[in-house]
Amino acid sequence: MQLTVARVSKAHGLKGEVALDVRTDDPQARLAIGERLETVPADVGPLTVTHAREHQGRWLVTFAEISDRTAAENLRGTELVIEADASSDEDAWYAHELAGLRVELEDGTVVGTVISLEYMPAHESLLIEETLPDGSAVRTLVPFVLAIVPVVDVEGGRVVLTPPGGLLARDADAAIVDREDD
User: Fold this and answer.
1) What are phi and psi of 134, to 5 degrees?
2) What average pLDDT does this structure show over 54-64?
3) What are the tens digits of pLDDT across the range 84-131?
4) How many Cα atoms within 13 Å fall on the side-chain side of residue 130?
5) Residue in 105, 103, 109, 110 with CA at minimum distance from that of residue 125
6) Which of 19, 58, 91, 167 lies 20 to 30 Å from 131, alpha-carbon distance?
7) Is the pLDDT score of 134 beyond 90?
8) pLDDT tens, 38-58?
9) Which of 124, 153, 135 has its CA nearest to residue 161?
10) Do the Cβ atoms of 73 and 44 come closer than 8 Å?
């Protein structure tokens, strides 16, 4: 299974360096000089790291195969991936481990299926396909935080949600909205 290490966000400078949105907890190892990374789309790579540095909280990388700004700009949106097995950490999961899991409420009510793990500015979110009582389906973003997703059972094929009222489309009428009268 492929694990996304980073996504190219933009070119940096004139000599082919790119800025990355890092998705790994070990960028020093994954972006070490000489590391060869597969890409999505596949026809762009593989790419070999020749230089990597952290600058103002962002990783900047140069690849042997990219020599100028134009080539670097063409990498925008490219995912850098490696082959990976299941995560060995007890409370950490790769996106590919979560995709396809059944989504349930605490009482066992099936809500839908996990489509993907989305990387948001504040925290990750689960993108789920929520099946509504009338049989229709909608996509819903659920913050992937312990208070809302207390159980991730990859072996059991499920995640359990404890959503606040109105988070899911199925209970939009339960949303608590505080409106000030003008």
Assistant:
1) -85, 5
2) 86
3) 654 555 566 767 778 889 999 999 889 899 988 887 777 788 889 998
4) 17
5) 103
6) 91
7) no
8) 888 888 878 898 998 888 888
9) 153
10) no
Which is it for strands 151-153 and 158-161: parallel, antiparallel or unpaired? Answer: antiparallel
Question: With bands split at pLDDT 50, 70 and 90, how would you rate the model's confidence at 174?
Answer: low
CA distance 133 to 127: 19
CA distances, 79 to each of 99, 115, 177, 182 (Å): 18, 18, 39, 48
Strand-pairing partners, residue 8, are: 20
Structure tokens at 40: 């999505």
Contact 61, 39 (CB under 8 A): no
Q: Among 57, 75, 30, which Cα is nearest to 121's?
A: 57
